[in-house]
Amino acid sequence: MSRKTYLILSVLLIVSFALTACGAPAATQAPPAATEAPASTEAPAAEPVTVTWWHITTKDPGLSDWQKMADDYMAAHPNVKIEITVLENEAFKTKLTTVMQSGDPPDIFQSWGGGTFNQQVQAGLLKDITADLEADPTWRDSFAPGALGVYSFEGKNYGVPWDMGMVGFWYNKALFEQAGIAAPPATWTEFLGDVQKLKDAGITPISIGEGDKWPGMHFWNYLATRICGQAKFEAAMARTGSFTDPCFVEAGTKLQELVALEPFQNGFLGAVHDDMQAAFGNGKAAMELSGQWAPSTQAANSADQKGIGDNLGLFGFPAVEGGAGEGTDVVGGGNGFAIGKNAEPEAVDFVKYLTSVQNQTTIAANGSGIPVVKGAEAGLTDPNMLQVQQTFAAAKYFQLYYDQFLPPATGSVLNDSVQGLFAGTLTPEQVAQAVEDSVAQEMK
Amino acid sequence: MQQLPAIPDILKLKRVSGAPHRLQDTVLIALFLLPALILFLLFVIYPIFRSIYFSLFDWNGLGPAVDFVGLQNFKDILTDQVFLKAFKNIFLIIVFSVGVQLPLALALAVMVGRDLPGRGLFRTIFFMPYVLSEINVAIMWMLLYNPDPDRGLLNAIVVALGSEPIGWLSNTNLVLFSIFIALTWKYFGFHMLLYLAGLQNIPQELEEAARIDGANSFQNFFYITLPLLGSTIRTSVYLSVLGSIQQFILVWIMTKGGPVNASETLATYMYRFGFVRFQLGYGSAVAIYMFLLCLIFSLLYQRLTRQPDYLTGL
Questions:
Q1: Domain identity same for B138 and B226
Q2: Cβ within 8 Å of residue A3, ≥6 positions away
Q3: Domain region containing B14
């Protein structure tokens, strides 16, 4: 008998366990219903809303600026709760991929536009905010059109920019002077000559974080933009041309000329982006090819947290003799916020607040970005940032970084292949062929 | 050999105690197994079949998989030089682990297993790296390996000795070795602990008897200790090989499989296609290959090492 009782008890236990397990979700579903009831009897505006926001500004002043904007917005809208998740660049990409695959994107999240963004739109993961922008023309028209266009797909908007800039050579004026270089180089030949002069003076010419791959991709990207020009790149993308065109091979050959001079810091193949900024920020390298984020990240990664101060200068990527592209064409990109498909109207309203002239001026004044909203450039006090903004504004052809612009698989193939050029394991022909093969597969 | 006749009795005993299952017992066992079984099916078996399904598609992970490509992914993988490189790297890591890391762990286990003064302290110190998370270990070794002598300890030493700084993680010929050092540092404590447990099961009388018979320390170790540790060593080799095949975190954090795939492992290769290039079909196919590799190894290994320990041992 005792055995039977034991058996019955066990079964009871298991069944009750199973029942409570099933019961749990029901219990958690109950509270919202309870809180909804009083809300509807009061004002409808007071209904609590949670907005999730993922951004990648891990360092001050940008980090505190974002926090303050969220706090101010929540103070003005007590019913809105903004949950901020701050992630480091690479960690963000990984985590976003995971939530994207489960079909549950955050309401507001960092985006660079381009191929990844387009895929997210095509998979229905982003919210069409075209109507919101049209409903508020003042907001819509405040954006620089080119910048806003980066976050659109087939004429519809799914996000807004908050920063737009360009990649160029940041250089250390004191080290240039020490090597006897009077003015920044204007052509590729002059550039290679200056690299040699710096080497002869015992200075590391260029710092690069090629372990992360994309810092080196910028070199190939700019060389292709200078040599092939807009027309050939667009033809290759439209599949009327090809990435095996001799001009894309020549981009690799020019890059090999540079690599052959061994201009990079020790261990550059394993170094990451932070290492690259640290080497430059500590005055241990004369140049780096980097975007508008360079001055702030140089300072943040340098030993004294100050960077190289007034010695910092910027010059555009040198023109390549005989190239089809203009010397003023720029490669760049910026940061924006994409709106996830599940976002409430409050999320769009908060993004509107984030991109207000006042907040954009704050971003500009603190050097966290180049503003994209008219009137906010007044906040740009830093001469380098002003130079970025003016060079960017003067460019006739603006190319979003290839690794962002291309479909993600191709962007990754390009990054991996260019690293092979830096390491000397791949030829320019192989790089061009790898990109062509991947584009052919992705754009079929 | 005299013990052999005793075995059938043991087997018989076992069979008698577990023989006539009553229906109630079966139901009870099934009920108790149910929660674990459901979790196992849901989080282990189901994903494996999903992976097999996805591996037949060209799929970017967003939306449903519709572009059926059959076994194309599996074919492409086998002709990809990077995959073959990853395979070779895994093989090297296994050889190093079994050939260097495990003997080191065994040597230390024998040392701290003796009645040394302060052996408790040594055991704790040697085991400590294993307790640290892999991320911490990876970042710590990245700091040690930093190519800038002002920032990296190892290169500071190298430069102080009057040499050029070494690109521990940037030299394509050196990077796998550098990673292996970090792996060894992280895992030798675990294997040492396994061996310590195994050593405690060896009766002291055997070693004493051997010593009385005139065996020296070497003979004692190679003819008594080592054979009796057989089952522990087999377990340790098994875990080490499987761990090597699946090695990901340390490598991904320290080098992302680079530079130019010099430290690529099967897992970083799989991750690159799944989560960097968003070719989830291809990534799934890589996962299937890894799964098969582990499965075949496990089956072969169990078959090859199935003899009872007392036969190989004495």
A1: yes
A2: none
A3: 1-54
